[in-house]
Amino acid sequence: MNAPLVETKTLGIERPFRFESGRTLKRIDIAYETYGELNGKRDNAILIEHALSGDAHAAFYHEGDQKPGWWDSMIGPGKAFDTDRYFVICSNVLGGCRGTTGPASLDPATKRPYGLTFPPVSIRDMVEAQRVLLKHLGVERLKTVAGGSMGGMQALQLFCDYPSRSDSFICIASAMKHSAQQIAFNEVGRRAIMADPRWNDGNYDDDVSPEGGLSVARMIGHITYISERMMQEKFGRQRKGIGTKTVFRPSFEVEHYLDYQGIAFVKRFDANSYLYITDAADNFDLMASISSKGRFRGQNRERGMNIGDMRAKKGLVISFSSDWLYPSSQSREIVRLFTAMNVQVSYTEIETEHGHDAFLTDCGKPSQIIRGFLASLG
Question: Could you tell me how far CA 81 lies from the centroid of its own chain?
Fold first, then answer.
């Protein structure tokens, strides 16, 4: 059986896009992929939200690729998000660097990358771009919106901003807002990038980019994705290349592993996008967002929640026992909030030693839970 192939498509929005900050861009591009078919009633669509370093390529293969999309274990025929039943959509976030307009995109006015002239991006801005995409695809209502980590934040934001547009949400290993510790880890990563002389206040070219700083930022982030026990079992104090060791060069296996992760990351990600996207996650605050009801878009009367309308809505929250970056206590806060809003919320904490990365790697139990949840939606 041949592996299913998919192509990333691009939607060009040829009209001004207004950010939550009040600033606008004259046009934006949105990179996206779809899997499965939209049915005649147009009521089988599911929107998948990606995390910090993800992109629109969530499943299947691109022509010539050796690896499938980042959530291929969850999306496809017979899988949790069954493409024989559902029309599954995933787009690269606004501010990203994998096809959607971001700081690395060319400013039409200068023919140079936007860099730090790009408007500040919020989770709500990402969701608003997705709403435009859904309209283009003819999707007026979602069966569910689902995501892990920062993807979970987007799922919650869309569900709250447009309750009439989604029957439910699935939030995995995420939070309603970042803690001081979570902000601190992101800030150290940002400082590593900005301390790299090649960053040049955000004005760098692809051939002279701040690879050193971005690599360190990725190393810091990756440490938070894995549990202490998993890291100890995988690496311990094993050494590599002892005979050729030089002073202050990697000798432990874990050091080489982090080197590999950093080098691989800089080949596919933009440093300024990293700054913008981590800042968006740090500034996300669902409660404050619900209170504001999107008044910055005064012409948009659809946005905002009506608690009386939420009794028929459902939510699924999943956390992982060894996730110390987004601990289960933050998932339980989400459950309490939406339960108070009359949403029918289910919650599961899954036992695993894989830490935060479990939402990408431990897909067996989540798949069972998600299948049952989607079946309950009818």
Answer: 17
Query: 150-161 vs 271-283: helix axis angle to the nearest 10?
Result: 50
d(CA 66, CA 127): 31
What would the pLDDT profile of 162-189 be if each residue is shown by its tens digit? 998 999 999 999 999 999 999 999 999 9
How, if at all, do strands 112-113 and 28-35 pair?
unpaired
Catalytic member of 55, 270, 279, 323: 323
Q: What is the pLDDT of residue 251?
A: 81
Active-site residue (options: 50, 57, 354, 356):
356
How much is the pTM? 0.94
Q: With bands split at pLDDT 50, 70 and 90, how would you rate the model's confidence at 289?
A: confident
Nearest 10 degrees: CA dihedral of 175, 182, 118, 16?
10
Which strand (E) or helix (H) includes residue 45?
Answer: strand 45-49
356 is catalytic: yes
In order of their start, the domains of the chain are 9-177+284-376 (3.40.50.1820), 182-276 (1.10.1740.110)
Judge contact between 319 and 173, C-beta under 8 A.
yes
